[in-house]
Amino acid sequence: MHKAIITSGAAAMLLHTGLSYADPAAADPQTDVVGAAGAPASVGAVIVTGTRASGLKAENSASPIQVIDAASLQRTGQPDLIQAIAQNIPSFTAQAFGGDTANLTLSARLRGLSPNNTLVLVNGKRRHGTANLAVLGGAYQGGAAADLNYIPMAAIDHIEVLQDGAAAQYGTDAIAGVVNIILKSNNQGLSGNVNGGRYGDGGGHTGDGTANIGFTPVANAFISLTAESRYHGYSDRGGIDPRVLDPANLASQPLLQAPGYPYLNKISGDAQYHLHTLALNSGYDIDDNTSLYAFATAGRKHARAHENYRMPSRLPAVYPLGFDPKETMKETDYAATAGARGKIGTAWNWELSTTYGRDESKIGVEDTANVSLYKDTGFTPTSFSAGEFIASQWTNNFDISRELDMGWAKASTFAMGLEHRVDRYEIVAGDPGSRYKEGSQSYPGFSLTDAGKYKRNNKAIYANFISFPLPGWTVDLAARYEHFSDFGNAKVGKLTSRYDITPTVAVRGTFSNGFRAPTLAEQYYSATNVSPTSAFVQLAPNSAGAKLVGIDGLKPEASTNLSAGLVLNPANNVSVTLDAYQIKIRDRIVGSGALYGSGGAVNSPAVVAAILANGNVLDPTVSETGINIFSNAVNTRSRGVELVATLNSNYGDLGRVDWSLAANYNQVRVTKINQAPAQLVPQNLLDQTAVSNLETASPRTRVNVGALWRLGQWTVNLREALYGKSHNYESPDGGTYFKNEIGTTAITDLEISYKINNNWTVSAGANNLFNQYPDQVNKDLLATYRADLNNAAVTLYPSFAPFGINGGYYYARASFKF
User: Fold this and answer.
1) What is the pTM of this model?
2) φ, ψ of residue 488 in degrees (nearest 5)
């Protein structure tokens, strides 16, 4: 068996990277005794996130850390890792539905901030972001964070979520917090599961199979391998498109009543995808003081999503019954890390590592056509390559640390390190047919002016000093200096302190600042988004067209974080933490509202000029044209409170119950609008929709109450999730705005498991047991869409619904362990 390096002299560096060695039974979902539904679990687990001191437990942390073990992830019944984390962490909100290609790569956000404000680590190493930027409006607009679904859930030992600003410790984009995914390091055993499910009202058929195996290739080494294959089917929760009911359309297009009529527009629902992933974690002890490690993930996804139905009149020679275009994505994602760590003499620990990650998304359009190409040449393909997004990141780190005996209550820890990072982003133009004139229907190919290659270099140095001046008092100081090749220098710092007043009562607090450079995708993404009635150009902020509407590139965000908390451990089986926080972000990068050039209630000539300057040719049949653009438009302030409480009870012959309560209250406010370009008058850069997406599209309050009951071979996991009110504003044309509101909703999740023997366990369960749906879109808004024969009337449920638009999901699972 490999050596337990966590007890060696290189402990500080081991903890910094997050690489840990674990017994293969530690994550057994049937033997694990923690992880009550609705709250993360720790049970004295040593944490590796948010500190560089060795041997620190979650309950002793000076920063709020929540730990989710593998059993808690599995008991959600969700093979989707983003959804599994969201069901355990109330302040972590998962996207349920996205527009256009965002529906092919759903994301999540922490404390109501952008997905880009949360840093994702794997074994303590920075994870690269997705190439598929979310550009259409909504609470997740601009998201290009790491796609967590390329990490097989069966490869995970546990997840540590640091809910505190950590830019000075890990990098200047860790404004909302850090998600650190710790991979399994078992050197023996085979485990896995097969599960399947579907939505109660149809669609969403899901099948998932995963397996993990650990072995010892040579003495003092381990290899842990995981494979997963998953399928998820379409769902459709849309209404009837008013265009297909219009008497005039029916009279002029009798073939409109095609099979499936009148539900021909299927855009409002889940995308279909096939996902295959692999993960490797490995380590080798050269001697007692030196070790090597390597870990990697690789995956491939083929996804497709329905787009808006096109009427038979659009191209009757090719599609006499009309057509249902589908956006497709063939995505390849991989990441690999290799490193070494050891000791210099008897005091200093060192570590050297390199990480490379890449995500490539090939975008296509199927069951479509280019109408102008057909009219001009008499021929059009029915499928196109719309182009590619490619994003990569190469990160190199060198770290040293040592303990210092200063005669205080405990030895101090000093650490420092260097980081070099190279980010690249590329847009590849679509094939000629996809970008001829207005391009392929539903998703025009990327034009030659959209295409380009971009690069950024980043260099950083950090220092961290952790001391214990008095018994029960911790002081953690961190500072970081970064230099960006395109934005210059940034200096950030963090002060964290905790004082244990008694063995059962402690207080803690943090002050820090942060700095986030815009992602390359936010800076350079450019494309055209279309519907049957509209065409909007996403302008790159540094383009010639952007200057015509008063936007001249992006600058970094700056943030200030404050938090204060109380930790209570009144009994061995009771734990309570309460933390309040405030996050101020200046020059926050957000997406604009819809800026109209034509067809809106208010239009701006500068918008038309910007579209022309960008070289776009728009569909001549649409009634509305305009632009969207990212800018440093606002300052925001987020204030909130997080509560986590656990109680473990033993009822003798009636079994054991782990009770839990996890709650989050989060209020986001736009405190200042920084940009009001004169070129856009009388329009505003941010309309009511854009502001509400920032402030109110996520519920302020979320509460999880859970109970995990065990008796003999039976386990029952019950969770009640309460989602507070949320709302946004929506306008058909930028004139009158309608309020879409989702009322307070309670969602019940239930799983029942039976352990057949030491090798097999079967489970059945439900997410959203009672098949709850969000309130529907404002009825007056729907009436307006229907009266205007607008295809948007097909959207019955708000896309920002925090618990989704599909109703209950019901599943069964068989788990094995040998």
Assistant:
1) 0.91
2) 80, -145
**What whole-number distance in Å separates Cα of residue 404 and Cα of residue 261?**
75
Residue 330 near residue 368 (C-beta atoms within 8 A): no
Largest CA distance in the chain: 91
CA–CA gap between residue 115 and residue 179 (Å, rounded): 11
Residue 246 has pLDDT above 50, yes or no: yes
Backbone angles phi, psi at 90, to 5 degrees: -60, -30
Within 10 angstroms of residue 356's Cβ, the number of other Cβ atoms is: 17
674 close to 551: Cβ distance less than 8 angstroms: no
Tell me which residue of 516, 681, 680 sits closest to 142, measured CA to CA: 516
Q: pLDDT per residue over 662-713, tens digit each?
A: 999 999 999 999 888 999 988 989 999 999 999 999 999 999 999 999 999 9
Q: Rounded to an integer, what distance in angstroms lies between the CA atom of residue 122 and that of residue 54? A: 19
DSSP 475-505: EEEEEEEEEETTTEEEEEEEEEEEEEEETTE
Of 418, 448, 429, 286, the C-alpha closest to 350 is 418
Pairing mode, if any, of strands 118-122 and 177-183?
parallel
Instruction: Render the burial of 706-730: b for 16+ CB within 10 Å, e for the rest.
Output: bbbbbeeeebbbbbbbbbbebbbbb
d(CA 162, CA 526): 34
Quote the Cα angle for 41-46-49, to 5°: 90
Q: How far apart are CA 237 and CA 807, in angstroms?
A: 9
Judge contact between 123 and 18, C-beta under 8 A: yes
Beta carbons of 740 and 729 less than 8 angstroms apart:
yes
Residues 232 and 24: their CA atoms lie apart, in Å, by: 29
Cα dihedral 531→535→536→537 (10° resolution): 120
d(CA 590, CA 675): 11
